[in-house]
Structures are given as structure tokens and as C-alpha cells.
From TrEMBL:
Protein keywords: Signal
Signal peptide (residue range): 1-20
Protein name in the entry: DUF4837 domain-containing protein
Top-rank taxon, per record: Bacteria
InterPro entries xref list: DUF4837
Length: 325
């Protein structure tokens, strides 16, 4: 009798105002996949092209082109059942309602991010896509990073050593190991993967090493080359920035602090070894210096988008702890 009463109360709790049960279940979907809910005619014309140009644009810093997101398209009538449980979906609607872009979270599953783009015709929809391009990319990317961090935290590496030395916390899975245990000013984390390795470096440099001026690209390159050539052991060469590929540098934030985000390629001088790197130089007001945290990949025969995304999720998980605390 108590079980029947419990089920009755639960059904009442999960019933919406129109008496339709609303049961939110776990979402599904591979990392960085987006389900496109759009008519075939729109997907195959300029509307589809504008979506692909934004969400399937190549990831900066990779040797071979790979899209930021993998896109899978279905007709609106097929958006039902298990397909509604996709963690990420973008829905395009032709409607006489007010044109615009809206965002829903956890509507059919949890976690879930949905972006709905509405316009009166194809031209109106394209206008909304173009005007909100960066926001749409950021919404999906931030949601995926949050989910990746949640999953990594379940199998988190003990980072007490890093916390004690740099007054920061970060999330990394236990698949990484400490590769330079005797160096107290340079932390090097390594993960073996099938095709090679993934690495993370953490260190500090004085504020004057990266002046905030027009030469910031050269300054960041000089810092990472001086540290990498000294701290990363390689045979018959030096670990430096790829000379033939100019890095991308953008202003960013990590844990609310000003940061330079740098994407580029590393190489070992004199050898045919290279790969992508992602570097954050974060200004720490308390110490008046830069915390530099960088992830890089050596996996020449593998697709690297998801590896780089994992590194981005780790680096963006940095949280500063007050020295007083």
C-alpha cells in the first residue's frame, strides 16, 4: 500500500499544468555531437550552409582539419522518443512568431542544451544564425566542457601537490600521472593514449615576462620555448613552438581572471615531431605573476579534436585559492 501511495505522489509531482507527465531522464550522445532538427530542404540549401560554417568550422591549431562539432540532421517529425534525449540539439523553425534565438536546458533530459532558431523564412533564419553565431558556439562548447569536467571529477586525480604549490585546484582524471615528481616549480602531467601521449605543464613566470602589448605573441612564444626546451626531455633537439605556424592568441578568462589563450603547434627542433598545444597564461593579482598551464598532444596518426577538447576542459577547470585561505 505504501508503495502505491509513493508512486501516486511521484506522478503528481512530475505532472505539468496540463496534466501531462514530465519525466526528465539522463541525456545521451557522444561528446561534441549536435543533433540538427531541420527540414531537409533547409538543411540542403543556404540555411544548412550557414549552420555548417559556424558549428562545423575547423578547430584552430590542429595539423589536419577537424570540425569543432559533429553534426547529425533529422527531420522535425523524427524528433521524438530517444532522439529527444540527445544532450545537444539545435532546432530550426519557420514560423510567423517573433524571429530570434532561444535556449533551453534540461527540457527533455539532463544535462541537455537546446538552441531553437526561429525565422519567417530562410533569409530570416540565416540572419539569426549569422547575428548569433559566436553565442551559439559558446553555449554548446560551455555545456560540453561542464559535462566533461563532471565526468572527469568522478575519476579525479589527486592534485594536492599542485594545490599546495600554486594555490589552485583543477580537475584531471586519474589516467594522468606526475612525470616530474622532484621538480617543485614545474609540474608535468602525462597520459598514455593508444596513439601517443597527452601532456600538461604548469609553472609560473614573472609579470614582466609577458607584457600586455602588441608583442604578446612573441612574448608567450619566448616563455614557452625557454621553459619547454629546458624542462621537457627530448632526444637530439629542443621542445619549442613550430616556427612555420603562427600561433593564435586571444584574450580570455579563467576563473574570472584575465588570461591569454594561445593555440598553435609545437615541434622538436631537428626532428619530424610535432603536434597541437593549448596554452593559458593567467594573470594572478595576488602574486603579481602569470600562471601558465599548457596542454599538448603527440598523436600524429590520430584524430585530435577530442583530445584537445579534454585538455581544454582540464585547463579551464583551474580555480584559484586565496593565499590567506
Amino acid at each position: 500500500m505504501k508503495s502505491i501511495l509513493y508512486i501516486f505522489i511521484l506522478l503528481i509531482t512530475l505532472t505539468s499544468c496540463n496534466d501531462a507527465p514530465v519525466i526528465v531522464t539522463d541525456s545521451a550522445g557522444r561528446m561534441n555531437d549536435i543533433l540538427l532538427v531541420i527540414d531537409n530542404d533547409l538543411w540542403e540549401n543556404e540555411v544548412g550552409d550557414s549552420i555548417r560554417q559556424i558549428l562545423a568550422a575547423p578547430v584552430d591549431g590542429l595539423v589536419r582539419e577537424e570540425p569543432q562539432f559533429s553534426l547529425n540532421q533529422i527531420e522535425p517529425d523524427s524528433f521524438a522518443g530517444l532522439l529527444m534525449k540527445n544532450r545537444n540539439y539545435l532546432k530550426v523553425e519557420v514560423s510567423n512568431k517573433e524571429p530570434g534565438v532561444s535556449v533551453t536546458t534540461g527540457l527533455y533530459a539532463n544535462p541537455q542544451t537546446g538552441v531553437i532558431i526561429r525565422g519567417k523564412d530562410a533569409a530570416g533564419i540565416i540572419e539569426q544564425i549569422v547575428n548569433n553565431a559566436q553565442q551559439i558556439k559558446t553555449i554548446f562548447n560551455d555545456g560540453e566542457i561542464k559535462e566533461k569536467q563532471r565526468l572527469m571529477k568522478k575519476v579525479g586525480l589527486n592534485v594536492d601537490q599542485i594545490k599546495e604549490r600554486f594555490n589552485i585546484e583543477l580537475i584531471a582524471p586519474r589516467s594522468y600521472r606526475y612525470a616530474a615528481p622532484d621538480d617543485k616549480d614545474f609540474f608535468w602531467l602525462r597520459r598514455n593514449i593508444k596513439e601517443g601521449t597527452m601532456d600538461i605543464m604548469i609553472y609560473e613566470v614573472g609579470r614582466h615576462k609577458i607584457p600586455q602589448d602588441s608583442n604578446v605573441v612573441a612574448s608567450i612564444t619566448k616563455v614557452r620555448d625557454s621553459v619547454g626546451s629546458l624542462k621537457v626531455p627530448v632526444d637530439n633537439g629542443k621542445f619549442i613552438t613550430e616556427r612555420a605556424f603562427s600561433p593564435y592568441v586571444n584574450e580570455s578568462q579563467v576563473d574570472g581572471k584575465f588570461a591569454y589563450e594561445t593555440k598553435g603547434l609545437w615541434e622538436v627542433s631537428g626532428q619530424f615531431m610535432s603536434g597541437p598545444f593549448l596554452n593559458y597564461a593567467i594573470y594572478n593579482e595576488e602574486k603579481n605573476n602569470w600562471l601558465v598551464i599548457e596542454g599538448y598532444i603527440f598523436a600524429p596518426s590520430a584524430k585530435q579534436r577530442n583530445y584537445l577538447f579534454e585538455l581544454e576542459s582540464i585547463l579551464k577547470s583551474v580555480k584559484f585559492i586565496s593565499q590567506e585561505d
